Amino acid sequence: MSRDRLLRAGAFLDKHLFDPIQPEDIAAASALSLRSLQRHFATAVGESLSGYLRGRRLTHAAQQLVLGHQDILSLALDCQFGSHEAFTRAFSRHFFMSPSAFRQQGCLQHNYYRPSLDLAMLDELAAQHQQPPQIAPRPQQSLWGVTRAMQTDELTGAGLGSTVWQLGGQLRSLFGQQAPLRVFYFKTQPGQCRHFLLLVATFAGRGTPPQDMVALTLPAGYSATFTLHGDESQLPVFMYHCFAQWIFHSGWHFDDAPIELQLPDERHPRFRLTLPVRTTPCPVYRLW
Prior knowledge:
Multidrug-efflux Transporter 1 Regulator Bmrr, Chain A, single chain, Arc Repressor Mutant, subunit A
């Protein structure tokens, strides 16, 4: 099927996001039967049409809450939920916390956001579906590193690269220019998604770490490494695929351990993300 039909569906959905539209209305706007649109949409996007519509509305609601929106009932009605209770149930299933908790702890850039459907999004999702992540066993590892507190919005773009370069310089001054550097991020406390610690580390030496450095032990387990195929503008789509699609449909489960970032360099020109995964649900899993 021509992507034009899907793009028509996406444009119509965005234009009428806060109107009482039904999947049948989106199908009519894209000149397809509902069954045909649902089938092709699920194949291209990775979730159902109705689930994506609901997710786009909840994405808007989450952004408004972070910006300080106080009237949850009016926000629920704007997003086409019939009551405060229905909105809270849907929001909590989607973001793993209540709307009021998200207003306190959430952030504008979030892994469960549904990006707008456009051609670049379809290209990135198609690449991800065709090239699933590389799963590999991970031995226990000991690292020493330096950390910096970051907000989620700072974990993308030039600011991230600059921070990694600064922290990496501190490590190389101690361990030499040939020290292999690895970049991780993890939450400062369970259950929140606004503040993270960024860690730039190298393999641990003997004894205790030098002053002002931290020791990190990565437990043995498995890891899933994803590669971003588009440019940096597609990071929200990339994260949406990793966290809101693959991790829920692959049979693997997220392990509550640091996530490794592999920034583009001469050897690996594309951004990569390595998730710690496990074969059984993690009892201490929290919102990422």
